[in-house]
Amino acid sequence: MELYQLKSFLAVVAERNLTRAAEKVFTSVPAVSAQIKALEEELGVQLFERSSRGMSLTPAGERLVDEARRTMDAAQRLRQAAAQIRGEVEGVLRMGTVTDPLSLRLGEVLVKLAERHPGIKLQLMQRLSLHSVQALRRGDVDCAYVLYDGETADDLVVRRLRRMELAVAVPKRFADREWPVSREALLALPWIGVPPDCGLRPAAERLFQSAGREPAHSLMAETEAAVRGMVASGLGAAVLRIDQAEDAAKAGELRIWPHWQDETWLCWLQKEGPEDPALGALRELVMESWQD
Asked: Is the separation of the CB atoms in 208 and 191 below 8 Å?
């Protein structure tokens, strides 16, 4: 049995799909398939049921997942202990992020990480904010940047990095034809929504609730960039981060409704409990990048 086989096993468990699992472990689909087959032969049990819908764990596979995770964690601790003896910090960290790397100052963090801790490898996984929170609780990521308007979470360390102001973006075709002067007129426009897992969703719900209305989204977008594009295309109004809305307004793509503002926070999240050296080193660099 090889550790890379267990790594591929856990990737398939997380993704339920050979193609996405292969991307996650930076290898090919045939290689992952062969590693799973070899592991099943070594253990003498079938780990997955294969179907047109993907890969699902068998009862035997379900019983072995936690053991596989403990084995990989133990191997990682062994590597880290050896690195500490050498005076280095090593490890592979998985970070969940929202979709705008510039606003996260990720470039600065990555440059400093390469300079100060070349033994730390960082894997970035773009997700909706709530998806990152769920992945963190499951152990699928080690830390995350999220849009989050709460101050605490029982099982997570929440560090607020920056207040994110929010505004309503209105398509030019509505603004030029009949500018909505009242909140009722604004909410009567077609609206672009975001999934419940997105950090912008609570602010949009508060806007509708302030007028005693239920959110009425005729269209749905998965990312902030998609929301901006759909507003610019004239499909409907939407809540956007004000920095994105202002950039789009300067480009002549849309207009900002001036009678409403809200906010959320860009936050750093990690699990409560003992912190391994690699995660501690990354956290310090993130906090350093957000000192101003």
From this structure: no
User: 1-86 maps to which CATH number?
Assistant: 1.10.10.10
Q: Are 48 and 58 in contact (CB under 8 A)?
A: yes
Q: Name the residue with tokens 């609206």.
A: 191
Residue 65 and residue 57 in contact, taking contact as beta carbons nearer than 8 Å: yes
pTM: 0.64
CA distance 56 to 61: 9
CATH number, span 163-265: 3.40.190.10
Beta bridge pairs of residue 241 = 166
Q: Dihedral of the CA atoms 286, 87, 156, 292 (nearest 10)?
A: -20
- 221/18 Cα distance (integer angstroms): 27
User: Average pLDDT by consecutive 10-residue portion of the chain (292 residues)?
Assistant: 91 91 89 94 93 89 93 83 70 84 78 88 86 88 88 83 92 85 90 85 91 82 86 93 91 93 92 87 91 76
With 0-12 / 13-18 / 19 or more C-beta atoms within 10 angstroms meaning exposed / middle / buried, residue 63 is exposed
